[in-house]
Amino acid sequence: MLKLILIGTGNVASHLFNTFLNSKEVSIEQVFGRNQEKLKKFSKYVPVTSLSSEIKEADIYIIAVSDDVIISVAQLLGNKQGIIAHTSGSVSIKALNHKKAAVFYPLQTFTKNKKIDFSSIPICLEASNKEDLIVLNKLAKNLSNSIFEVSSSQRKKLHLAAVFANNFTNHLFQISKDLCDSEKLPFDILKPLIYETAKKLEDLNPSEAQTGPAKRNDVETMQQHLEQLKDPIHKKLYQLISESIIDSNEKKL
Amino acid sequence: MLKLILIGTGNVASHLFNTFLNSKEVSIEQVFGRNQEKLKKFSKYVPVTSLSSEIKEADIYIIAVSDDVIISVAQLLGNKQGIIAHTSGSVSIKALNHKKAAVFYPLQTFTKNKKIDFSSIPICLEASNKEDLIVLNKLAKNLSNSIFEVSSSQRKKLHLAAVFANNFTNHLFQISKDLCDSEKLPFDILKPLIYETAKKLEDLNPSEAQTGPAKRNDVETMQQHLEQLKDPIHKKLYQLISESIIDSNEKKL
């Protein structure tokens, strides 16, 4: 039985908590968090504390807090003997400054109150030694079938890639919704296209799947589109993404 | 039984052909196309021709050709009595210059040799009169459960919205794949995130679903990301999309 202590009470901590709570190989010994109000929902199931002096001993401490407080939270665990793993995409393993420092990074977008099925979520692991990596693997297998060993420098790039694939993509969906709204068209009309755009990647890589006026270098259509865009930032975005598509085309030739 | 003639032999024409061929309420009378080689695969099932003088009479002519030849192809049908409908997102109904001009625009991305299930694809209809709209509706119901009446000016905006939601999004996937490649990480590691980004829209609108460093105005992470991007166009893209996310944030406040 792996003894686990969760540090944090936010979105990622809650999702991990809910999944590990039902695991037969993991026992959540305690949840630590600064916010007493947020600790309440955990206290129904396991011991909780907001005092760092009360943090118990465990095999693994999972730090699921905002990037900017990881270092200060890790300092509270400086004298612990267990593995200390953060869950961030962009913070180096070195930030933990611990001989059993590790990373347990689930690569997914977490939405409050929306249940997550971890089984297909990639878990990116990094450890300070082989023994710890074996323990982290055991822990990760309780969540997911998709486990990767990813170094800090790889993870940094991966996090950047995820910003393009998720955050930026979602913003483009926002712009397309605004365009629908401006003509009183329901955004639902675009959703099948959006799903297919993602699903296509099962069969084709993105460069094979690329279509549209920029791909065809269809100057007339691009000009018409630009004239329809009122927001100056959206206009610049249209131009720059089109330029980038044309640039990729030329690099392929 | 609706008598249908298909004009064109490309991607959209092939997908429509395969679906209508199995319909009990639609009879494909003929396929017309300039390219004799491409006509061959249709000729196994229905009469084909590459001579405009041989085009038969029908209830509906569906023009599924590139935008830039729609006008010239429509001229070949000037003396026909049936409904003349093009399938383009960006061309006005007026371009057809026919008293029974119409639009039959399936809003989806079509990939060669990849079978399409039309049932959930939105079909956007426009007609020159109510009677023709009823006929087009009957035709569309043979394909899809999702039918919309969309005017030429609405369709123009919708097509632009689709460029953001599909073409531009796919290009961001390309950039994220390049970033994975640069660190020898499999692109598969990002796919669950990409699916979830699309799936989230079932429950949340994109502005609610927005996360990431730009949303949080996390200047330090954005700076680190910019330093990692080598391609100058990708750097500019990162800055501009982040700027656009921050701008949307401020407009919401």
TrEMBL record, chains A, B:
Protein name: DUF2520 domain-containing protein
Family matches, as InterPro entries: 6-PGluconate_DH-like_C_sf (IPR008927), DUF2520 (IPR018931), NAD(P)-bd_dom_sf (IPR036291), P5C_Rdtase_cat_N (IPR028939), TM1727-like_C_sf (IPR037108)
Origin species: Croceitalea vernalis
Domain Pyrroline-5-carboxylate reductase catalytic N-terminal stretches: 5-79
Domain DUF2520: 121-245
